[in-house]
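Researcher: For the annotation table, I need structure tokens for WD40 repeat domain-containing protein. Please keep the output clean. Sequence:
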Amino acid sequence: MQPGEYDAVLGGSSPSPMGAMVLGGLEGVKQRFGSAIVAQRIAALLEAHKYGQIELDLLIQALQDESTQVQKVAYLRLQTRQESKAKRALQAYDPYALFESLATLKGHLSGVTAVAISPDGRSLISGSRDEVIKVWDWWAQEEIFTLKAHSFVYAITISEDGETFAIRGRNHVIKAWSLRTGQQIRPEKGALRTIASVTLTDDRHLISSSQNAIKIWNLKTGRELCTLQGHSSLVTAVAVSADKQMIISGSEDRTVRVWGVA
């Protein structure tokens, strides 16, 4: 059976013979996407925007490409598409293998023990062994203010409206502050999670520290998806953003790292 005029892929993954003519237009895009050469497949995806629905089909197919470079191009371009088909493909895709270190925040004088991220994904909070809490604007990659916790920080949580945050210290004592001003306030009732080095993103993934790395597991298959490496010492705290697009981690190397796709 011969491929139709609007099939997304011509088929075949063998590279074009040396000196063979590469077609232009839609047929050229299809030919390059079927190439065994990663750069050719990426070039096809970048050119496919001229062909509407064909681009969407190629991008979705590229999420299953053996090359993470190709997957990354498809993932980022699909995020700009509004079709329900594109959104379903992104929802089914695990992007964690594409994650890399986006920022390293330095300033703590001791190892980081707990971290949290605001609902809008911009403000980060970290606590360290020296009983200090730091609030960061990670987009600007700068510290906003520092507070004394007067306690070892076991856990941090940020309110759903992003206005306040609370910590759990020694003897289960809860303290809270305004995220905007740093003014201490009366804490609301509620439990804070106590295991700062393990977190669940949803019913599909578990993120955990593993020595100086972070491991991400698919709970349905029980398999490790990927390992994020960059810290130089034990990872002691992890947290994930509300939209699942970012992970933050704290370490005994006294840094906070931000992970995502860029």
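Researcher: And a one-line annotation?
Model: The longest helix spans residues 68-78.
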